[in-house]
Specification:
This protein has 12 helices and 16 strands. The chain is an alpha/beta fold.
Length: 392
């Protein structure tokens, strides 16, 4: 039996209390601590569920490598083509780089990560193999989901669909997709292929949708249709979904209603450069919303530090969240919203939940989001896996 007693912690900013963690789970109140139980003094820190990084690219980070001079063009396809070239020139070892990013995430309090990993005819399945190795090595500190992701296009590059099938057979958890109209220029063919793979492997779906306005709305409608037809409620996510940031309510409101009815989750990074999904309207419509860092210091851009509390701040700024209850929504997006979006069956701080916890120095949830204080302690399955913001 493993046992850890947290004393003087404040669950989501509540009154000081003690939490007993037994065999990786939160024990019921009043359960006596076994003899010899280790004690961790929370010193009044705020306890929240382990943070959920719902969208990143572990195979692409340049963390720990020499500074990359970014001179890539502005279009999405420019960045995709440049990345393929950089992968050959640098190179970027997926196992080493993914391990570096996971350690950074754990230090900041993330206990769950969903990562999109490139599959294409040039890199083949090397990224999948590398991140699978990291997933196994980091299993005691972080739970990782792998999305097989056709970054360069699915149908536009013949042979990619077959590699995606192999990636799922290797152990990828989720079938990914990308801009059915703008990249593959065959929305029906692309989405039919993605959902057929998901059906074959009994897997969820997570689709990057950068397409704006009416084009993005059209793709979204096709995703909703397939989600309904295959009974995949709660197993489909649309990432970025910039079309939902359109100011045209006649375009957006029916999409929000359809997403809620179909049980499709939306991921936002709070991107400053594009229209973004309005998180308060999503919440009001009943749409599950989560957040992610996306790329972290890679060939696409130099930004990112894997801190999901800081990401909650960015989502809050982008959506003009100012009230304390609005900041609580921002925290929900990187905790319970993320857990629901990636399909976690058990999550939270209730008795019986897995003991995935992060302790931060903050008086309230609102302060934790607004200030995203450092020096955190991360606990995974009842074991301390990071202290003072550094993974063990």
């Amino acid at each position: 039996m493993t046992a850890l007693l947290l004393i003087d912690v404040r669950v989501l900013g509540g009154a000081p209390t003690d939490l007993l963690l037994l065999d990786g789970r939160i024990a019921a109140a009043g359960t006596p601590a076994p003899p010899g139980t280790a004690v961790l003094d929370g010193a009044g820190r705020l306890a929240m569920p382990g943070l959920v990084e719902a969208h990143t690219h572990l195979d692409k980070s340049l963390l720990g490598m020499a500074w990359y001079r970014n001179e890539v063009g502005p279009r999405l396809i420019d960045k995709i083509d440049n990345e393929r070239a950089a992968r050959r020139a640098l190179p970027i070892p997926p196992e080493r780089q993914s391990a570096r990013q996971v350690a950074l995430s754990v230090g900041h309090g993330s206990t769950h990560i969903r990562s999109h990993v490139d599959v294409d005819t040039e890199c083949g399945l090397s990224g999948i193999a590398g991140v699978l190795a990291t997933k196994q090595a980091a299993r005691d500190s972080c739970t990782i989901q792998i999305v097989a992701f056709p970054q360069s296009g699915l149908l536009a590059r013949p042979g990619t669909l077959e590699l995606m099938d192999q990636a799922m057979a290797m152990g990828a958890d989720v079938v990914g997709g990308l801009d059915p109209c703008a990249i593959d220029r065959d929305p029906k063919g692309h989405l039919d292929a993605v959902f057929a793979l998901a059906d074959k492997h009994g897997a969820p779906v997570d689709i990057h949708l950068h397409e704006p306005g009416e084009m993005g709305a059209f793709s979204m409608e096709l995703i909703v249709e397939r989600t309904r037809a295959l009974g995949m409620r709660g197993r489909v996510m649309v990432s970025h979904a910039f079309c939902l940031g359109s100011p045209d309510a006649a375009l957006v409101d029916p999409l929000l209603a359809a997403l809620a009815e179909a049980g499709i989750a939306i991921m936002t990074t709070g991107a400053p450069s594009r229209p973004v999904p309005p998180v308060k309207r999503l919440a009001a419509a009943g749409v599950v919303c989560c957040a992610g860092s996306d790329g972290i210091r890679d060939t696409w851009g130099p930004y990112g530090n894997a801190d999901m509390l800081e990401r909650a701040t960015l989502v809050g700024l982008r959506n003009n969240l100012r009230r304390d209850d609005e900041l609580a929504l921002a925290l929900e997006i990187v905790t319970t919203g993320g857990a629901r979006a990636i399909g976690l069956k058990e999550y939270g701080l209730a008795p019986g939940c897995p003991a995935d916890i992060v302790l931060v120095v903050a008086e309230t949830v609102a302060e934790a989001v607004a200030q995203h204080p450092g020096a955190r302690t991360t606990i995974k399955a009842g074991r301390v896996v990071a202290e003072a913001g550094r993974a063990h």
